[in-house]
Amino acid sequence: MDEEYDVIVLGTGLKECILSGLLSVDGVKVLHMDRNDYYGGESASLNLIQLWKRFHGNDQPPAHLGPSRDYNVDMIPKFMMANGTLVRTLIHTDVTKYLYFKAVDGSFVFNKGKVHKVPATDMEALRSPLMGLFEKRRARKFFIYVQDYVEDDPKTHEGMDLTRVTTRELIAKYGLDDNTVDFIGHALALHRDDRYLNEPAIDTVKRMKLYAESLARFQGGSPYIYPLYGLGELPQAFARLSAVYGGTYMLNKPECKVEFDEEGKACGVTSDGETAKCKKVVCDPSYLPNKVRKVGKVARAICIMSHLIPNTNDSPSVQVILPQKQLGRKSDMYLFCCSYSHNVAPKGKFIAFVTTEAETDRPEIELKPGIDLLGPVDEIFFDMYDRYEPVNEPSLDNCFISTSYDATTHFESTITDVLNLYTLITGKVVDLSVDLNAASAAEE
Question: Cα separation of 16 and 253, whole Å?
């Protein structure tokens, strides 16, 4: 313990593990500590006995649910865009060799009281029951514009500067109605609320293109992929990467108190009476509660079922987005379902989550629109957790704190936070076009 490190990382949540992996690859001397005796922190995957213990104390789960070890229930369930930044980070770091992925079967949106497949291309727009005949034609033209748009080729811009034109103005040009705008903004571009309508359209167009590229990558029923055995595999894979590049790991370390020098800069971490010195500390909000503020709350229901979610084309794995406007809410609701097809439950069992940014203290009532789409459930657990963001100035105190996980069931906002923190810590931007494995092979 009594050594000096460049960076000490506290907590083995996914964000912290990705950062320790990226920093170790850079040749940074990293010590990674966690007060828990398992990897994953808040983003761990639990077996059935662990799940029961967390929500019911020491109760034993009922036998009819099957073996505990067959369950891997994510505490922060999220799918990955097949061509998104997290996947490119996995390829860049060669962490893919520790993981197995499988495409997610379906991507759906709740609209006018029904669940519909999300149309992602001009041809799908023409077939979609989400729109009437004339609206389909207008939507098809908009999809073709987005598909053909190339940022550095003005010929594809149709005279519009999308860094200045708002999304609302771009959509108005195509005359799309509110329902169409709703599924485009929330289920394709994956915006979490309607603020995007008054922001530059370039962001929405890029997000729609990412959705279509991800859909094309595996040619499955959705643009998403998900690791076999659950997301708990991801932090461990990045921990292995860090260890390969010289990172040191210590689990089950109580307290983990950050030490500061006279100037208020982090200079070490004390645990069990021993202090490891460092130049910088990276951690989740729970390790430095006086340097974060509460920004919201997530409500979620964890459901174990014995059937597929109705009206989702018999998809064993699926995401359904319920846009805020459809529910009369301020933020979207998300439905995530996985099963034995991704090795997270025994055959015939399905794990479904309904999550949203909480607007009340009553998750049972607030989550009802999503739960009603599931049909009968065998078991249901309700939960709420606070979301925090840092309020410190890292250049003054050398503390780099991640934000809490949001209610979305996809990873795009999570990986943005990680790469921003990496840049704050190192002053560099991760070049995801470089394949580190190929680069190190070339050096040898």
Answer: 16
Distant-in-sequence, close-in-space partners of 97: CB < 8 Å, separation ≥ 6: none
H or E element, residue 178: helix 178-183
Which has the closest alpha carbon to 215: 122, 104, 289? Answer: 104
User: For residues 7 and 282, what is the distance between their CA atoms, to the nearest angstrom?
Assistant: 7
Q: CA dihedral defined by 76, 77, 81, 86, rounded to 10 degrees? A: 30
> Measured in whole angstroms, how far is the alpha carbon of residue 272 from the centre of its chain?
34
Q: Look at residue 1 in the predicted model and tell me its pLDDT.
A: 59
Bridge pairing between strands 248-250 and 30-33: parallel
pTM of the model: 0.90
Picking from 41, 65, 40, the residue whose alpha carbon sits closest to that of residue 52 is: 65
Query: Exposure of 339 by Cβ count < 10 A (0-12 exposed, 13-18 middle, 19+ buried)?
Result: buried
Torsion of CA 305, 302, 351, 69, to 10 degrees: -110
What is the residue whose two structure tokens read 């049909």?
375
- Residue 412: its pLDDT value, please? 77
The C-alpha atoms of residue 119 and residue 117 are separated, in whole angstroms, by 6
Q: How many CB atoms lie within 10 A of CB 243?
A: 16
State the pLDDT at residue 2. Answer: 63
Other CB atoms closer than 10 Å to residue 256's CB: what's the count? 20
- Report the C-alpha gap between 392 and 315 in whole angstroms: 44
Task: Count each helix (H run) and each strand (E run) in the chain, helices first.
Answer: 15, 19
Confidence of residue 444 (pLDDT cuts 50, 70, 90): very low
Question: Which two three-digit tokens encode residue 193?
Answer: 């609320």
Structural element, H or E, at residue 114: strand 114-117
State both tokens at 44. 């761990």
Rounded to whole angstroms, how far apart are CA atoms 265 and 437? 36
Looking up tokens 């301020």 gives 330
